Amino acid sequence: xxxxxxxxxxxxxxxxxxxxxxxxxxxxxxxxxxxxxxxxxxxxxxxxxxxxxxxxxxxxxxxxxxxxxxxxxxxxxxxxxxxxxxxxxxxxxxxxxxxxxxxxxxxxxxxxxxxxxxxxxxxxxxxxxxxxxxxxxxxxxxxxxxxxxxxxxxxxxxxxxxxxxxxxxxxxxxxxxxxxxxxxxxxxxxxxxxxxxxxxxxxxxxxxxxxxxxxxxxxxxxxxxxxxxxxxxxxxxxxxxxxxxxxxxxxxxxxxxxxxxxxxxxxxxxxxxxxxxxxxxxxxxxxxxxxxxxxxxxxxxxxxxxxxxxxxxxxxxxxxxxxxxxxxxxxxxxxxxxxxxxxxxxxxxxxxxxxxxxxxxxxxxxxxxxxxxxxxxxxxxxxxxxxx
Length: 388
Fold this sequence. Notes:
This protein has 4 domains: 3-112, no CATH class; 122-196, K homology (KH) domain (GMP Synthetase, Chain A, domain 3, 2-Layer Sandwich), CATH 3.30.300; 221-263, no CATH class; 272-319, no CATH class. Helices cover 32% and strands 18% of the residues. The protein is built from 10 helices and 12 strands. The strands form 3 sheets. The protein has a 5-stranded mixed barrel with strand order 1-2-5-3-4. A 4-stranded antiparallel β-sheet has the order 9-10-11-12, with helices on one face. The chain has a 3-stranded mixed β-sheet with strand order 6-7-8, with helices on both faces.
């Protein structure tokens, strides 16, 4: 391998330039970074701005760029400051998601950001929070039914994007005039949804990980309660709703697998006739392919769990007018389930260990105090005996 493409950190990986800090929203791993000729494959570069806003720009000046570089890009008016997140072949794949082609019109990358550009950028960012609070007050004075959730200043401070949420259509023409007079900048209003607002704010989900909308989700597909029904999830609004007060996006992640697996489960309304009686559908484990039947239609009684293929076999026998002796196949053995090592342990065992340790230390301290007292008494007795 050419020394030009060898890393200096002791490892042989040539894609180290594709890594990035995981604290940035929508962080991507450019696994082709560092491959010879990758940067020259296309002059289109992906640039990320504040939070989840990304754009594609043409590197017409042939600047040597890699992931993580801060660049000044063309804007209307002036210029904006962003961070390069992807270069090379993978950019063309990203363009397909946004329905763009390499022949489309793209704005240009001017240069790598200079210290003067970064000073203006930091000054503009420092004004965002104050501007957001003041704009909310102005919207309230104008009696507009909207919520301004975030403000993003352009890198040179000449323009600001106001992100707002509204349930109905809002006429904000007067608001734009007031904001332009108050802040002396060009105003752009952009409406976002509740999920997009949660992605811009960020947070930790009930799973313990960072919100999907603030890490990798860019296209927000509608989520319905049918996704929860297919997965046999309790229709509890408090558990199904995310931090945006909408149904969790992760409900759609595995629903296709459950829909496919449910095709191998007998219908719920079909009753199974046996010589022991009539069995009604009670519950099923879709992924395991097992169905539980009850002899009562409303309450669990004499529950019998059988594989789905056995249930289909009984249904075919009933269609022919036959009734098996029992619902479970004669001589069949239930498949052995894998042993879960965690369920054999009590989660309170650590608390019990701490209590026993405290008790042991307390007993040891009591014995040491008692021994110390006995030693003092013995020394006093010896001293008295020596005086006599």
